[in-house]
Design a protein that fits this description.
heterodimer, A: mainly alpha, two-stranded antiparallel ribbon, 76% helix, 3% strand, B: 112 residues, mainly alpha, Helix Hairpins
Chain lengths: 651, 112
């Protein structure tokens, strides 16, 4: 509690404002309709300003903003808290999330024009932003998990925004179910931590582990389970299969998912719980190798894709792999720095792809071609984003990517270093392949010939993002590393890792830039002067080409191993439900109907029969409950009445 | 002779009234259940009602602690019976108009 109440309110408003916008738009969206974008942009812009305040407070005071209230109190059993914890890492994330979200919401106004669920789209976009902001400020696992699930829900809603298309509906389900696997593991990990330490706060668990309350294989298992949660959200191997399919959603949503909200959550979780991760060297190695392998694997998958958005999607998987790799080898600041730079150029790449799609209604890069002249703004911003992604000096991607590659080399992780360097080459190749094919050469379709530049409300955010894609890296140059002053691992983590600081390695930087340029050169050579070369090459190595084009057959593999057995179980259960349970219930119903049919003749409609029933029933009642004297009378009446009935029956 | 006259002028015991009431009720019930003619059925119902009235009045007379409440009930029952006959006969008339019969066994509109 080292802040004034006013400060606390401002900080708390960062996630609350977009959530309020969600409520307003969800309730009154149909009346506001096109005005929804203004409400939404106002909310996010205010959050952005407040986030900048938060960053300023943290940078000025040099200590985290930290406050919490009890949420669920167990008395002696402790309590679950809801609170806010903002250190440099969280503050930077807040600014990035708000900024990217703002850009995307500006852009969406034109892109989603005439959509029939326009206001709902904005509502969910804001809920998405709100949940990500909530996740960023969470000081404990329980609060994190709440927002974690909300993020998953929003991604489901947005990927399936055009749910009339069956592919979109399927992609949304796939994203939800695959990330759900990770979520379940995360939840188990959280419970294990809670059982072992009695707390869910990151700090508490880290301290308990230091003090030796929890350790050994149990601790490692819990950490790895938490990491599996991060794998699911950040689309790392082996749970990466949902992200390329998530391209079925509107393109600005892809930008938001890839740049700021959904997939960043996994990397952020590892960074946030770094004090816990560093205490398990095994888990750190798992993080590093999963990251390195994913980076390489996804880059190879991107090589052959014809769909512009899928190329960028695999690129995200690959870049997230870099970040995991960096975190795993102890290059904490470098990993987060890459997350921060990546947000700008990846959002830009998607907005550029969206701009092309807006102009010519196709995702296939081989339908495009020659767009350089028709859409100059899109072309140049895409090139900037591509160069930044490729990590060419002096754009932002260079600084962070080089830091990661250099750390891998300096800390003697030579396998990971080789993977990372190879990935640099593949990355530049695939992204420039897409750009060259789309923008150079001659138009390959009618739509490409008639494409016109997107309106200013779309190119505006792209230009702003391009500006940041160029300069965002400059806050972390070796000359003066502002970024590393704000985002630092805790002292404990630094000690535990025992990473010796290493100098900026010029040779290595030159090597990585040269490798990157080589990738660009190869892409140019194959696709611009004589595109036949690429086709010939693909034909020559067609088994490899098909293997890569099918994404290493992961989808087919998962289909065999998980999807089909699950479907079989589902069909069996449905069958069981219908035949066993269904017939049981139907049987009861039929029994009642049958009994009714049997009793129906009694209702003959004759008033005298009814009267007879009444009389006999009353007599029986009288006999049963009759008192001493009344019994005699009633018995007398009964005898007479029965005699009368008998007589009547004979008549 | 004198003894016979004494017997005649002696108060009738409660059981006497009750037996007469019970027999009347039984006759009424028997009639209501087996006679076809709706008008006769009504007459039988009147018999049952009056049997009950007789019991009520007898009890009112023989049970001093009851404070004569039975008489009050009897008056109430007579009033209700009058209303019931009015409604019932109206129904019988209506049935007769539409179906040209007052035989209750030919009227089975309430068949389930």
């Amino acid at each position: 509690m080292n802040q004034t109440v006013g400060q606390q309110l401002i900080i708390a408003a960062i996630p609350v404002l977009p959530a309020l916008v969600f409520l307003v738009l969800a309730l009154f969206g149909r009346y506001i309709s096109e005005g929804a974008q203004f409400v939404a942009i106002f909310g996010v812009a205010t959050s952005l300003v407040f986030s900048c305040f938060a960053l300023f407070f943290v940078a000025r005071d040099g200590r985290p903003i930290d406050f919490a209230v009890n949420w669920i109190d167990f008395g002696a059993g402790g309590s679950f808290q809801m609170g806010i914890y903002i250190d440099g890492l969280a503050a930077v994330m807040l600014v990035v999330v708000c900024f990217v979200s703002l850009m995307i919401q500006l852009y969406s106004g034109a892109f989603m024009q005439d959509d029939k669920r326009f206001a709902w789209y904005y509502a969910v976009l804001n809920l998405f932003t709100a949940s990500m902001l909530g996740l960023v400020v969470a000081p404990n696992f329980i609060e994190l998990y709440v927002f974690w699930e909300l993020v998953g829900l929003c991604s489901y809603l947005l990927i399936g925004h055009w749910f009339e298309k069956p592919e979109a509906a399927r992609a949304a389900q796939k994203a939800f179910i695959v990330t759900r696997v990770g979520d379940a593991a995360l939840f188990v990990g959280i419970i294990m931590f809670w059982r072992a330490t009695g707390t869910t706060s990151y700090e508490g668990i880290a301290q308990a582990a230091q003090a030796g309350f929890v350790g050994g294989s149990l601790f490692t298992a819990a950490v790895v389970l938490v990491f599996v949660g991060a794998i699911g959200k950040s689309a790392q191997f082996p749970l990466h299969v949902w992200l390329p399919d998530a391209m079925e959603g509107p393109t600005p949503v892809s930008a938001l998912i890839h740049a700021a909200t959904m997939v960043a959550a996994g990397v952020y979780l590892v960074a946030r719980t770094y004090d816990i991760f560093v205490q398990s060297p095994t888990a750190m190695l798992v993080v590093a190798y999963i990251g390195g392998f994913t980076a390489l694997m996804a880059a190879t998958m991107a090589l052959t894709k014809k769909d512009m958005k899928r190329v960028i999607a695999y690129s995200t998987v690959s870049q997230l792999g870099y970040m995991m790799l960096a975190l795993g080898i102890g290059a904490y600041t470098a990993g987060i720095f890459h997350l921060y730079n990546h947000a700008f150029f990846k959002a830009l790449l998607f907005l550029g792809a969206g701009s092309i799609i807006y102009a010519m209604n196709s995702y296939n890069i081989f339908d495009m071609g020659g767009l350089r002249r028709r859409m100059p703004v899109t072309f140049w911003t895409m090139v900037i984003a591509g160069v930044s992604l490729a990590g060419i000096f002096p754009l932002s991607g260079f600084w962070s990517k080089d830091a990661i590659v250099a750390s891998a080399f300096a800390d003697h992780y030579y396998v990971l270093f080789a993977m990372a360097l190879l990935t640099v080459f593949l990355t530049t190749f695939y992204i420039f392949r897409a750009i060259f094919v789309a923008f150079m050469g001659e138009p390959r379709s009618e739509a490409a010939r008639e494409a016109i530049e997107s309106p200013g409300i779309m190119t505006g955010p792209m230009v702003i993002l391009a500006f940041f894609a160029v300069i965002s890296g400059l806050v972390g140059t070796p000359l003066r590393d502002f970024f590393a002053e704000i985002v630092v691992p805790s002292e404990f983590a630094t000690e535990a890792l025992a990473v010796e600081p290493h100098e900026f390695n010029v040779t290595l930087a030159v090597v990585s830039v040269v490798v990157g340029l080589a990738g660009i050169a190869l892409a140019y050579a194959l696709y611009v002067p004589k595109p036949e070369r690429a086709t010939a090459l693909a034909r020559r190595f067609s088994p490899i080409y098909t293997f890569l084009d099918n994404g290493w057959y992961f989808d087919a593999l998962y289909d065999r191993i998980f999807v089909r057995p699950a479907m079989a179980i589902g069909i069996f259960v449905r069958q069981f439900d219908r035949s066993a349970l269904g017939s049981f219930v139907t049987g009861i119903g039929r029994g009642a109907v049958g009994l009714g049919e049997k009793l129906r003749p009694l209702q003959g409609g004759g008033a005298q029969n009814y009267a007879l029933f009444i009389l006999v029933s009353v007599l029986l009642l009288g006999v049963i409950v009759g008192a001493q004297y009344a019994f005699l009378t009633v018995a007398l009446i009964a005898v007479i009445a029965l005699a009368a009935v008998a007589l009547g029956a004979r008549l | 002779m004198q003894q016979f006259l004494d017997t005649l002028s002696a108060t009738v015991p409660l059981e006497g009234y009750l037996v007469v009431g019970a027999i009347t009720f039984a006759i009424g019930a028997w009639g209501a259940l087996i006679r076809r003619n709706a008008v006769v059925v009504f007459m039988c119902i009147e018999l049952m009602i009056n049997a009950v009235n007789l019991s009520l009045v007898a009890f009112a007379d023989y049970l001093p602690n009851a404070g004569g409440a039975g008489v009050g009930y009897a008056v109430l029952v007579i009033a209700v019976a009058a209303g019931e006959v009015a409604v019932g006969l109206a129904i019988v008339l209506a049935v007769f108009r539409t179906r040209r019969t007052v035989n209750v066994d030919e009227v089975n509109l309430m068949k389930g």
